[in-house]
């Protein structure tokens, strides 16, 4: 058995100094900047520490694992997103859902793998409570019950998250297309299946148009289900 490695002199003091020099917000900001370069798979605590010019163990003062970091990143993404949201009391609930989900999509598209970071993460503070309270109150005043309001808003939200996850699988960043999604090559490969071949643009292109129509389908379904027009 090998003897334990000798502790580097001053290591504890240096780690405490690094802890004092960085905080969760600064780490999350750095991680979001790095995300566009390396993607979610390449985003490691070691890589973030290198960007911050600190030792990787210093980050464990703030985040016990990568999921904890993703939670803070999603929280920071939300903070940035709500700055641009303006609720229009005169607008109908349909317009409200459209605008909030268009805003969510645009926010997620700013980051490589943005939807994956946001999906399933737990917000670390209570700031999201204000936006949720406003949205649910808005829907209740339009005639929804609380249960209906929650289900309507989360259904639209989950559509947006899922849509952007698939969109970023093809185009990790706007204007960038991942290898293997060439529509002409796909059409040639599926020459024996003409309907499947012709569906290519509806599956792997026209994202803006498809998102608009998909969200309209969700809203029309909410209207029909709950009878609130």
Name its key features.
mainly alpha, 66% helix, disordered N terminus, single chain
* Main sheet properties: none
User: What is the first-to-last residue Cα distance?
Assistant: 74 Å
Unreliable spans are 1-7, 10-20
Principal-axis shape: flat
User: How confident is the prediction overall: mean pLDDT?
Assistant: 88
Number of DSSP helices?
12
Which radius of gyration do the C-alpha atoms yield? 22 Å
Order of helices and strands: HHHHHHHHHHHH
Strand content: under 5%
Which bin fits the share of residues in helices?
A: 55-70%
Q: Can you count the beta strands? A: 0
Structural class: mainly alpha
Briefly, what is this?
Helices cover 66% and strands 0% of the residues. By secondary structure, it is mainly α. The longest helix has 25 residues, at 146-170.
